[in-house]
Amino acid sequence: MAATKTEFGVQALYAVAVLSGLTDMDAITLSTSQLVNQGRLDPTTAWRVILVASLSILIFKGIMVAVIGGRTLLKYVALAFGGAMAVGGAVLWLWPA
Q: Distance between CA 64 and CA 45 in Å, rounded?
């Protein structure tokens, strides 16, 4: 995270969050929190990066449900996941920067 921010700027953190969030939230959450504690990242950017990573893992898990669980399970999960994605997207879009 720190190297990405240094080399490519704050906007690149969102791409790292999407990729890192595909499988695991621990690393992105801990490294982002550490950057905030060190004063190297604004807390507003930090929570946005963590939210992007959590939405990314939600998409990944939704795809896994579709592939492994089939259509029946996906019907049950899609509404909850879709609602969470909508709320998360709205928070990212509407919350003042």
A: 29
Nearest-10 Cα torsion for 20, 13, 36, 33: -10
Decide if 21 contacts 53 (C-beta within 8 A): yes
- Give Cα 24 distance to the centre of its chain: 10
Cα 95 from Cα 68, distance rounded (Å): 35
List the domain boundaries for the chain. Answer: 2-94
Confidence at 5, pLDDT banded by 50, 70, 90: low
3-class DSSP state of 93: helix
Q: What is the pTM of this model?
A: 0.85
Region label for 74, one of left (φ > 0), alpha (ψ between -120 and 50) or beta (otherwise): alpha
What is the DSSP secondary structure assignment for residue 65, as one 8-state letter?
I
pLDDT by residue (tens digit) across 25-75? 888 899 999 999 999 999 999 999 999 999 999 999 999 999 999 888 999
